[in-house]
UniProtKB/TrEMBL annotation:
GO cellular component: membrane
Keyword Repeat: yes
InterPro entries in UniProt: Leu-rich_rpt, LRR_dom_sf, LRR_Rcpt-Like_S/T_Kinase
Membrane topology: Single-pass type I membrane protein
Subcellular location: Membrane
Keyword Electron transport: no
Source species of the chain: Capsicum annuum (Capsicum pepper)
UniProt KW keywords: Glycoprotein, Leucine-rich repeat, Membrane, Repeat, Signal
Protein name: Leucine-rich repeat-containing N-terminal plant-type domain-containing protein
Length: 334
């Protein structure tokens, strides 16, 4: 290939061989169809390929992508690809040196996970498939991704239980499974091991069908709109670096004193709305809510008085709808 192209925007070549090794065309305003005869697939030495935020409407993800055996980063997000089926998905997931794969926000994509160990299992560190329609259970083969740090599978029409194998992801930092139809009881064998993964710092399970009594809580876990029940776990009080607590629309019950949250000095977002919780202030302790709070959502939480809100000096959003407040709002917050 002529070395002239090496001076083009978004093109990076190997200085020794002249081979194109990176193609960074994200946000390029590109329009058209990529098919199996595209000259793109002549760039067999590519290591990074970014075609995100373009418009390749009606383009299929061609089996020719498996010719990029040196590829470490592949980003086809937000580019209107369609038709991720069967062996085509296999060719993407089995690229042997792949570290980052992002097919997210292509809501016309449909596909299937490989059922066996992926060739990229040892190298893959980031996998983002948000909004790709799988209409399937989470496969056990995800447990082979032992190097993965971030796994995003939101809005994927996934169903069934979280497989035991996900507890093998000992390097994972972020796991996003929200807005699916996943189910199962928490705690269970898998969920306990997953919650206890030391590396896991962000876990989003909202808008699924998980049930059970939550005996253990992992920092920065979002569990809104499930079917969890019982008391709030006392382990929440020990999470002194917790920033977000989202438990909207479950079936948690019991009286919860506002002093329960007094040691969470970094808490910014608190949402307990639409459970069967009654928030009380029996001890009448001043400044019981952390001053770091910017959003408090306590709809239908049996709130009767507002003295405990005076400590929330940085408050930006407040929802107290459907409560039993007996005193004027301005008086209590003055």
């Amino acid at each position: 290939m002529s070395r002239d192209c090496c001076s083009w925007d978004g093109v990076i070549c190997n200085e020794m061989t002249g081979h194109v090794i990176e193609l960074n065309l994200g946000y390029g305003g590109l329009v058209g169809v990529i098919n199996s005869t595209s000259s793109l697939f002549q760039l067999s030495h590519l290591q990074r390929l970014d075609l995100s935020m373009n418009n390749f409407s009606n383009s299929h993800i061609s089996p020719e992508f498996d010719t990029f055996s040196s590829l470490t980063h592949l980003d086809l997000s937000w580019s209107y690809f369609s038709g991720l089926f069967g062996t085509i998905s296999e060719s993407i997931f089995h690229l042997p040196n792949l570290e980052t794969l992002d097919l997210s926000e292509n809501d016309q994509l449909n596909g299937y996970f490989p059922k066996t160990k992926w060739n990229s299992s040892a190298s893959l560190m980031k996998l983002d498939l948000n909004y790709v329609n799988f209409s399937d259970n989470l496969p056990k083969s995800l447990g082979y991704l032992t190097s993965v740090h971030s796994l995003s599978l939101a809005y994927c029409n996934l169903r069934g239980r979280i497989p035991e194998s996900l507890s093998n992801l000992t390097r994972i930092k972020s796991l996003y499974l929200q807005y699916n139809s996943l189910n199962g009881t928490i705690p269970s064998g898998c969920s306990i091991r997953m919650f206890s993964l030391l590396s896991l710092s962000h876990l989003d399970l909202r808008h699924n069908h998980f049930s059970g009594q939550l005996a253990y809580f992992k920092s920065n876990t979002i569990l809104s709109k499930n079917q969890l029940q019982g008391h709030l776990p006392n382990s929440i009080q020990n999470l002194v670096n917790l920033t977000d607590l989202h438990l909207l629309s479950n079936n948690f019950s019991d009286n919860v004193d506002v002093s329960f949250f007094s040691d969470l000095r970094h808490l910014s977002y608190l949402d307990l709305s639409y459970n069967r919780i009654s928030l009380t202030n029996e001890n009448k302790v001043k400044c019981t809510l952390p001053g770091s709070l910017v959003s408090i959502r306590l709809a239908a939480c049996g709130v009767r008085e507002l003295e405990f809100l005076k400590s929330a000096k940085q408050l930006f959003y407040l929802d107290l709808s459907n409560n039993k407040i007996q005193e004027p709002l301005c008086k209590d917050l003055s």
